[in-house]
Amino acid sequence: MKTLVVYASKKGFTQSIALQIAEGIKDGSKAVNIKREVASCNLGDYDACIIGGYVHAGKMAGALRSWCIKHTQTLLEKKLGFFICGLDEENYEKTIGDAFPAELVKHASEIVHAGARLVLKDYNPIVQAILKKITKSDQDLFLDRPEAVKKLIEAFSS
Ligand SMILES: Cc1cc2nc3c(=O)[nH]c(=O)nc-3n(C[C@H](O)[C@H](O)[C@H](O)COP(=O)(O)O)c2cc1C
Q: Which pLDDT tens digit goes with each residue over 58-100?
């Protein structure tokens, strides 16, 4: 199923997941960054759409929400999925529910938590100190969820 994967990524982990998903589904599927390439894409050319993003301080990128609001009617006519990348594996459905229009969340056939990567040296010392306090760890953190990526790929492969 030709799928447009629209993602927001600060440090590259969500981008890597979006690329894996598009490459796994094949069939002309493509992953596009919400900040850069999405404007040059015609959603009408795709059978399905998967939207994914990182979480910072409990929130997903506002640009993803704005894009979804702009394209709500078209998205309601397509197979739809959401994925989220974040360290909190428990509250991710609520975070997605808060981030996107309720009718789209209800319409989505797949909503998955796709893992997280937190590399402390990617951030300045002040942010590093805050992150260490929040995570109660002074280590880089990596949550691998290959089964979630596989689930999305299988659901959107026709
Ligand atoms: C400043 C900051 C705040 C974060 N806040 C959250 C959060 O509230 N909930 C969560 O689950 N993960 C949180 N994370 C973890 C990121 O969502 C995670 O590192 C994600 O994989 C980043 O994706 P990216 O590499 O695409 O930017 C936070 C990370 C940073 C750096």
A: 999 999 999 999 999 999 999 999 999 999 999 999 999 999 9
Residue-wise pLDDT tens digits, 13-46:
999 999 999 999 999 999 999 999 888 889 999 9
CA of 115 to the centre of ligand 1 (A): 10
Helix (H/G/I), strand (E/B), else coil: 138: coil
Pairwise CA distance, residues 105 & 157, whole Å: 20
Residue 122 domain-assigned?
no
- 95 C-beta closer than 6 A to ligand 1: no
CATH number of the domain to which 111 belongs: 3.40.50.360
Count of the separate structural domains present in the chain: 1
Domain with 65, as residue range(s), is 3-117+143-156
Q: Is residue 105 part of a domain?
A: yes
